[in-house]
Amino acid sequence: MAENEVFPIDLDQLQPLVLDPEVESLTAEQTQQFAANVQLCRDAIIFFTATGAARGVGGHTGGADDIVPEVLIADGFMRGEDSVYKAYFDEASHRVAIQYLLSVLNGHLPATALLHYREAGAHLPGHPEFGHTPGVGFSSGRLGHMWPHVNGVAMANPEKAVFCFGSDGSQQEGCDAEAARFAVGRNLEVKLVIDDNDITIAGKPSEYLPGYSVAKTLAGHGLTVDEGDGENLASLYTRMAKALRTTGPVAVINKRPMAVGISGLEGTPKAHDVISADLAKEYLAERGYNEAVEYLSSLGKTPNPYVYLGAGEQKDSNRNLFGHVVVEILGEMDEAARKSKVLVVDSDLEGSCGLVHIKKAFPEIYVSSGIMERGNFAAAAGFGMAAGKQGIFGTFSAFLEMCVSEITMARLNGCNVLSHFSHAGVDDMADNTCHFGLNNFFADNGLDDDEVPTRLYFPADGGQMRACVGRVFNDPGLRFVFSNRSKLPVILDADGAELFGDGYEFVPGRDEVVRDASPDGGFVVSFGDTLYRALDAVERLRSEGIDVGLINKPTLNLVDEDMIEKLGNSKWVLVAESLNRRTGLGVRFGTWLLQRGFTPRYDHVGTNREGSGGLWQQMGHQGL
Predict the structure, then answer these.
(1) Are 417 and 384 in contact (CB under 8 A)?
(2) What's phi and psi for 375, nearest 5 deg?
(3) What is the pLDDT of residues 427-437, one digit of tens each?
(4) Closest Cα partner for 472 from 482, 486, 487?
């Protein structure tokens, strides 16, 4: 961070309110100051989240922008009342921009820190991380996981009310239903404040989940519910003050279009993501923030300057390619067969997982089903319970951990499911630690005598993804295909040709020699996004005369007996992966060698620490 940096919006203009919930309404003067504070904070959020767009590290604008009024009211109560727990717990964790702004307003960070939103090494990652960013008092984890935690905080502090900010998206997660029953059953002083803007990543809940109502759901659980206009600031204060005066759990539900007042974003799913730099500059120019516009114009992306040996210039997005390949396969089936044999279930991440391509091509077999990973996987599995049928499911690899019980149920019921878990590993993941896809091997929870197999596949480039999906599409059982957020370069053979190009055949369970070595040498074993990085290291070592080879292991949970013998007779073996070093391939591969009587020198490397923010920098941060 440069010493001469200046945050181009004067946050000293903000005059925090000190509020007393026993006072039922704001004075005219307080209301005027409150409105000015809201506008100032929204302007700041639009500006500094747009720096993420300008730098290419992404971000989220609309959600944080939405909840500024209710967060400032809660902040006022915390300033004025010792009976309110001083934390801004938020279960819609992508709204982290409001947490960082509060860290500045409360004196934990300088305003100039916000200029580096989501940047590598700036300690401002895409979701709140406790102990990582000064002033942030909690880790939110994944969407819709905070309320149960807040229940515990309320029980530990029975003399205080605890705020938990939510959304109509986060409330779709099943653990919130459990949290609601817990809070009501114990009459906890938990005050939910929910932004009900009818927007999630993939669309409008009112359209893809007709009948779903946050207010009716929470009232059914027994909470006191107060629904109103989130943009009526005077009424919002009155309703939140009343919630604090009301004994027991209360849900203050605030209706508003997402990203109010932002031209080009208001009321659209695009507002969930980061505002574009161009839209932000238009908005800020209209507000008279010329220095902010100039700052955004000065920013650009920071590409990875490193050149990887053994990798081609072409790069493919495997997470999108999955959807394209499935479309090709489905296109070869007649319409009646498609409708009777295949069901595709999305969990609000269709664009990120490539399922959107299936939706566009064959909407009649596609279900947009919201942020309900466990129930959605189980529905896909239930459809695939009969022979000849299969469900197709997709979400982020981080969320696989939530589906483990449902995976077991699918296995016990002999179901056929083709699952695509994208965003595996850490590469290109500015959302940071809570969104890392690290524990993918949790899916391999079957038994040795299972009649219906479980297979884990992690292709290394676009050619291998295409071949893999095409080969395993009609296989029975549970098939898990993993991909990365980042694009992957083509893997080249020793002659510079595409290793997985024309003529390549994917064989489940078969490991592949990328570069060979003699029995007196050693081997690196890798897969997925780590393979091309390992190949670069191997090529550089070989150029120095070191006898080292590289093995690709695209089927993660099967032993290739021929390859294990080859590796077992070498001098050393190193497994390199972007999955969790404690739960990934590395902790298994050494055992497989020992079980067969092989004792080469052995070690394994993988993701081993919390993230650094940024994109490509994440792999280097892990030593990979």
Answers:
(1) yes
(2) -65, -35
(3) 999 999 999 99
(4) 482
